[in-house]
Amino acid sequence: MTHRNRRPRGTLTGRLVGALQDWSVPRQLRGAPGHAKAAESAMSRGLRPRLEQADRVGTSICPYCAVGCAQLIYARDGKPIAVEGDPRSPVNQGTLCPKGAATFGLMVSPGRLDRCLHRAPGATAWREVPLDWAMERIAQLAKRSRDESFVSRLPDGTRVNHTLAMASMGGATLDNEENYLIKKLFSAGLGMVFVENQARV
């Protein structure tokens, strides 16, 4: 029976015997001393915390809603390697919701846009444009649409001062102050009726 345990690990039987010997459940059932040691495996003994690789830790605020959960950004060689909740914060006390916990993916995703793209009417391809040009273009088109569709009074004389040609869909990364300003600008300033937020969808 002893010779079976000496079979080369490269064979199927050898790998099976090795896996059974490394399996922690039999050791725990036998009552092996030390709970942590009894539950160890060859793989778990070699594991190291990913945060151990960081050479710098910065602080940030979660970008996803207006709660303002504090985050710790762990970086190595100037690049983020992990995002955790900040336990010093009285707001979230080190915890993060699923969206906040996904902040790392948002930061390093190769699909994340970090520049302005514009597709002209009738064009089939996007082109990169400067931010200043894009903001000016948006302002001009918004004013033109508002001026062309603005209604001061209904046929019965009721004053409405609104436009039905424009709408706003806010995102869940906007905080309370930004949403307040958006509502004031779009409703009171431009007369937009349709002002909604993605967080309600």
Automatic annotation (TrEMBL):
GO BP terms in the entry: anaerobic respiration
GO MF term list: 4 iron, 4 sulfur cluster binding; electron transfer activity; molybdenum ion binding; oxidoreductase activity
Cofactor(s) annotated in UniProt: [4Fe-4S] cluster
Domain 4Fe-4S Mo/W bis-MGD-type: 55-111
An example Gene Ontology CC term for this record: cell envelope
InterPro entries, sorted: Mopterin_OxRdtase_4Fe-4S_dom
Pfam families: Molybdop_Fe4S4
SUPFAM superfamilies found in the cross-reference section: Formate dehydrogenase/DMSO reductase, domains 1-3
Compartments, record wording: Cell envelope
Keyword vocabulary terms for this entry: 4Fe-4S, Iron, Iron-sulfur, Metal-binding, Oxidoreductase
Coiled coil, from the record: none
Family the UniProt entry places it in: Belongs to the prokaryotic molybdopterin-containing oxidoreductase family.
Annotated protein name in UniProt: 4Fe-4S Mo/W bis-MGD-type domain-containing protein
Organism expressing this protein natively: Siccirubricoccus deserti
